Amino acid sequence: MAGPSIDALGQFSLTTGLGPLGRAVDFTNSNEAMLAAAVIIVGIFAVGLRARALIPGRGQAVVELLYEFVHNMCVDTIGEEGLRFFPLVFTIFSFVLLGNLLGLFPYFFAFTSHIAVTLSLALFVFVFSTGVGFYTHGFRFFKFFVPHGVPSWLLPLLVPIEIISYLSRPVSLSVRLFANMTAGHVMWEVFAGFMLMLVASFGVFGAFASVVPLGLNVALAALELLVAGLQAYVFAILTCLYLHDAVHMH
Amino acid sequence: MRRIATIALLSLSPAAAFAGGTMPQMDFANPLTSYQVLWMAVILVALYLLLARWGLPEMGKVLANRASVIAQDLAAARAAKITADQAVAALNATMSQARGAAGAEVAQAVAKAKAEATAQAAALAASLDQKLAESEMRITAARNAAMAAIKPVAAEAAASILQKLTGSAPGADILGQRVDDALAAGKAA
């Protein structure tokens, strides 16, 4: 097919980043965005912690807002014991949030749109929370799969269901984030591709008509901003929920 | 025409965009897919250590400091309020005491003034009564004097009138007697 075509998936392909050094150690363009996210997180902490004022300035207020948001999420969801996991939840939340937000900018790689990334994060959360469960309760943690107040003849049916639902946690956790980010970026690319195709096919009229996909992309940008924040929040709160289950067993 | 058909198809289903190529995300044969996870682990461990050892505890200190300052200020404010309440109570007590004393003093002054006024009024009334009595005495004396003076004049006038009318005048004794009678009758009337 002549003329412009829509390559909605090219934006997700991995290359190496950071020039020849990156090529030597297989540091990918995805890792460049991760590094940028980590540097930004540490950077806002450095800026926010400069004054340590009683009445916070703008930079400090941003860090305090993030800190208290995740802090409250940990305490409300896991309980006071949840503060042990606060740095972990904060790291995951800020990393995913910054990854989602950076991905919204042109020329930035959205690393949360890679299933390998989200599945690794989700598997880590799954393995870690299961480990916490066994560490806290020993082998009694297996009781987690036996629902309370259920007639014993139903147990052979319910225990496998509980186990399957527990094992499906990393899948749902990772696919939710991956699918949301991928779908948004594909939609953007498709509508942007429409504009090029309209101009190529219909000339001046097509240029005028391409206002429609442009408007759709503008609206989509607002939606994607919401999705970026929401999915980071969902990932973090589910992490907290799994840790709550591990600590409290229901 | 094929292009228009492509646009129509894509506008109906963005999923058609996938038809062309495979998803790079699913290309696990690409070694970069696994390497990005390896590097992510490195970056995340570094980020975790920085946040857990430095960023979050430092921020926590700032927030704890603020909480303690607020708590101290609240305690100070509560202490100040208690002091202020005590001062207000003392003020109220003093005020009511002073009000009572002032009231008593005012009542005393009023009673004194009333007594003085009564005494003055009584003295005034006494002196006025005295003056009135003196005046009455003077009036009575003047009237008596006038009455005494009127007798000879009346007798003389009566004698001259009778002289002119009758040509003769009764004796001075009779005229005097009659004038006395008339004056007595006039007084009685």
Shape of chain B: rod-shaped
What's the average pLDDT of chain A?
Answer: 92
Q: SSE string of chain B, helix = H, strand = E?
A: HHH
N-to-C span of chain B: 154 Å
Question: What Rg of chain B is obtained from the alpha carbons, in whole angstroms?
Answer: 66 Å
Question: How many alpha or pi helices of chain A?
Answer: 8
Q: Uncertain regions of chain A: pLDDT < 50 for 5+ in a row? A: none
Protein chain pair with the most extensive contact, residues per chain: A-B, 59 and 50 residues
Distance between termini of chain A? Answer: 58 Å
Membrane topology (chain A): Multi-pass membrane protein
Family (chain A): Belongs to the ATPase A chain family.
Keywords (chain A): ATP synthesis, Cell membrane, CF(0), Hydrogen ion transport, Ion transport, Membrane, Transmembrane, Transmembrane helix, Transport
Protein name (chain A): ATP synthase subunit a
What does this structure look like?
- The complex is a heterodimer of chains A (250) and B (189).
- Chain A is mostly helical.
- Chain A has helices at 19-25, 29-51, 58-77, 86-103, 115-137, 155-167, 169-209, 211-248.
- Chain A contains eight helices and no strands.
- By secondary structure, chain B is an all-alpha fold.
- Chain B folds into two domains: 2-100; 141-188, no CATH class.
- Chain B is built from three helices and no strands.
- In chain B, helix 2 runs antiparallel to helix 3 (172-188).
- The radius of gyration of chain B is 66 Å and the shape is rod-shaped.
- Chains A and B meet through helix 2, helix 3, helix 4, helix 5 and helix 7 of A and helix 1 and helix 2 of B.
- Chain A: Belongs to the ATPase A chain family.
